[in-house]
Amino acid sequence: MENLDVMVLRTLRDWRLAGERALLTTVVRTWGSSPRPVGSIMALAESGAVVGSVSGGCIEDDLIARYTRAHGAQEGMPSGPPTLIKYGITADEAHRFGLPCGGTLELLLEYDPDAASLAALVESLEQGRLMRRTVMLADGAVQLAEATAPAELTVDDKTLVNTFGPEYRMLLIGAGQLAEYLSTMAKFSGFAVTLCDPRAEYRTGWTTPGVTISTEMPDDAVQAFKPDRRSCVVALTHDPKLDDLALLEALQSEAFYVGAIGSRRNAQARRERMIEHFDQTEQSLARLRGPIGIYVGSKTPPEIAVSVMAEILAVKNGVTLPREMEVAVAKAAAMG
What we know:
- By secondary structure, the protein is of the alpha/beta class.
- The chain has two domains: about 5-125, no CATH class; about 170-335, NAD(P)-binding Rossmann-like Domain (Rossmann fold, 3-Layer(aba) Sandwich).
- Helix content is about 35%, strand content about 25%.
- It has eleven helices and 15 strands.
- The protein has helices at about 5-15, 60-65, 90-95, 115-125, 175-190, 200-205, 220-225, 240-250, 265-275, 300-315, 325-335; strands at about 20-30, 40-45, 50, 85, 105-110, 130-135, 140-145, 155, 160-165, 170-175, 190-195, 210-215, 230-235, 255-260, 290.
- The strands form three sheets. It has a six-stranded parallel sheet, with helices on both faces.
- A hairpin with a 4-residue loop joins strand 2 and strand 3.
- Helix 1 (about 5-15) runs antiparallel to helix 4 (about 115-125) and helix 5 (about 175-190) packs across helix 10.
């Protein structure tokens, strides 16, 4: 599954280029619990087609009923400047719209967003750029600019500013069953996945669609991949000739996660090799994760993939996991 924001914006662009009326809905504020975070977007066509989400479904149903002729709206979709609308102000409304207890959210509705502006935004995102989209609340005019860093959505009396980043990316070193499970989970989590394995005999059994395949040596593949702050690099071969140099390249990048599969003994041996043969230090290897994953007692490739993906998502989302959940710590405690 591709990045959800890109999918929403691309679909909305296509609707508008085809001359179909549509609106873009953005979560701009929340109070209490809310099903979707600030900055979440959804597009709605006058035909009733929907892509994206701003709630668990009930608010989407209400918007469809209000603004699409195909589902009973009396006047169809309005025109004019953006409007702000709140859901869940009262306990009855919160219950009606399926919001958590005490939850309220405010949405900005943009009617018939400009097709050319949407096309320019989608093209920039597809080229890997981080983009800032500024909406003038008085008339709906939009300004696009390349951003230097991700930022939270901001809104005031005059403008709404939302930053859209390129897809999160994952580079896997080594084909195999674990890589297939992990790549599938990554794609469903919105990552664009690249698999590197120079060994033809391992690649022949690869069946996961939608993954970019690289046949370069892994360290060259890391350089070509150009990891940034929205990238992770995971080594899965158990072969030092393939893993070590790739990991060293990744550690010199801004990748938010760099790790390698293996036992505690293998992880320690890897560190010792890198210190002895590649002039590394404990400090330079501080970001290197291994054994990777959170401890769930996993034994099979799919369970190990769940464990690894959970840790990657926790790091991506800025969640500090308890040390007791680290594989090495948990296994050491279990042994006594």
